[in-house]
Design goal:
It contains 17 helices and 14 strands. It is an alpha/beta fold and 465 residues long. The strands form four sheets. An eight-stranded mixed beta sheet has the order 1-2-4-7-6-5-9-13, with helices on both faces. The protein starts with a strand and ends in a 13-residue tail after the last strand.
Length: 465
């Protein structure tokens, strides 16, 4: 695929032209829903602090935008380093024909300040409270082309999402953090609109484009304990729900050597070392339960966005007359359980009519019929702790409270210490201790060996489909 690049006063515009090896439809190994390449240009808007981008990083940014349909070649108007071309060929099977023999790969900056991939969700919001004050909080937002493209994207209500993002960014600035925003519209190249692609790759753009301008060495991804130990999602053949997949836990929680993750950086299957960047996972010892408590009890006061459509259903009023909070949509399981996690942290009761309104959605009712729910251990923790008079929640409570208490999910797992870069490890640990206790040796042993039992479907929900 050939890509022309035009420098704009506020960023870049890209125009592509296909080659024989390129695809009209996306690779099946990259997404379950086929995508069709329907556009030929996209734009990236950058903040005033932007001073330039290393050609190797620029090539990576273009690759990520075109990854679903890219064939064997990516022809760019600028040359990349020989190391970058070799890495693309080895890792992606993609040739970068234009190589600048005199260009050295990007060097690691001497300064240690990290950049945080910030989404406005609970995990990255908690990270803004725990990482050093010098952290650059980097956010990638969308340029809304839905009207021009004639698209209706139910999962991404652009106007409402934009208002919510502005609110979240103001909160970050009020905390005294340096917020850096990039705007992008590459997703409109595809039909249907690739919501999955946004979640997997879009957040990286802000860091890639601003790495040189900010002098970034570390990329803080915001990954939490669940990301390190298992995906959190159920599958049909599940017979048990271990809290920690042992081998993965050992590798990613750095049991062997402090700082080991610093040297094994990857973006998916791709190593970032040639770009002078290191991936850091300072949040790796905190579960979703812990980050939700930090957001609830800290200066955010529970103000974070679990999903991309917090205002989309603001006019929705359930049959019992309750409207959703501006922080949560009224129809997805993630918002449902985040809402209850915040209520638990703040010691307040979850209203029964709120639960009834969520249960009006067949998708949520079907989810709750499963023996193992997505993020099953989080739900069991919720049912052990939540105060709610709804009969369905009370039925789940009876089952959950017969299981081993999962209160240690509120605490920090010290095996993740090595995932925090050494230059600011002490600072992050001090901040963590302000909000969370440390797991005891006995709790660590339980975390490594315990499997959470399934939940039976309450009669009120009817039989499983």
């Amino acid at each position: 695929m050939k890509v022309a690049v035009r420098r704009l006063p506020s960023g870049f515009r890209y125009r592509l032209s296909g080659e024989a090896s390129d695809r009209v439809y996306s690779r099946r190994d990259l997404c379950g829903t086929p995508l069709k390449l329907a556009g030929e240009s996209w734009e990236v808007r950058l903040p005033r602090l932007f001073r330039g981008i290393h050609p190797d990083l620029h090539a990576l940014a273009v690759y990520l935008a075109l990854r679903p349909v890219l064939g064997r070649r990516l022809v760019l108007p600028f040359g990349v380093s020989a190391a970058c071309a070799e890495a693309f060929a080895r890792s992606f099977g993609v040739e970068l024909p234009k190589v600048d023999g005199g260009l050295a790969p990007r060097r690691e900056p001497e300064r240690d300040a990290p950049g945080l991939l910030y989404s406005g969700g609970f995990d990255s919001s908690a990270a803004t409270l725990l990482l050093p004050q010098s952290t650059a909080v980097c956010h990638c937002d969308r340029i809304d082309r839905s009207r021009e493209a004639g698209l209706f994207v139910p999962d991404i209500p652009f106007g409402n999402q934009s208002a919510r993002r502005e609110h979240q960014c103001r909160k970050v600035r009020r905390l005294g953090r340096r917020l850096c925003r990039v705007w992008d519209d590459h997703e409109f190249l595809y039909r249907p609109y690739p919501v999955w692609h946004a979640n997997d790759w879009m957040s990286w753009f802000s860091m890639i484009y601003l790495a040189d301008s900010l002098g970034l060495r570390y990329i803080e991804t915001g990954h939490v304990l669940e990301d390190m130990c298992h995906t959190g999602f159920r599958y049909d053949a599940m017979r048990s729900w271990p809290l920690c997949a042992e081998a993965l836990g050992r590798e990613n929680l750095c049991d062997a050597e402090p700082g080991a993750l610093d040297r094994t950086i990857d973006l998916g299957e791709f190593r970032l070392g040639i770009f002078g960047l290191r991936k850091a996972r300072s949040m790796a010892g905190l579960s979703t339960v812990a980050t939700s408590r930090i957001v609830a009890l800290g200066p955010y006061h529970g103000d974070a966005s679990p999903c991309d459509k917090p205002f989309a259903d603001a006019s929705f009023v359930g049959r019992r007359g309750t409207a959703p909070s501006a922080n949560y949509c009224a129809e997805c399981p993630r918002c449902f359980h985040k809402r209850m996690l915040v209520d638990i942290a703040l010691g307040r009761e979850t209203r029964a009519d709120t639960v009834s309104d969520y249960l009006e959605f067949p998708f949520i009712r079907e989810e709750l019929r499963k023996e193992f729910l997505d993020w099953h251990h989080i739900w069991v923790y919720i049912f052990q702790r939540v105060r709610c008079r709804h009969p369905l929640i009370r039925e789940f409570q009876k089952q959950a409270q017969r299981q081993r208490d999962l209160g240690f999910l509120e605490k920090w797992h010290p095996a993740a210490r090595g995932a925090i870069p050494a230059p600011y490890r002490a600072s992050v640990e001090k901040n963590i201790r302000r909000y969370a206790q440390t797991m005891s040796p006995a709790e660590i042993e339980v975390f490594g060996k315990h499997a959470v039992a399934p939940l039976r479907t309450p009669a009120a929900l009817g039989p499983r489909a």
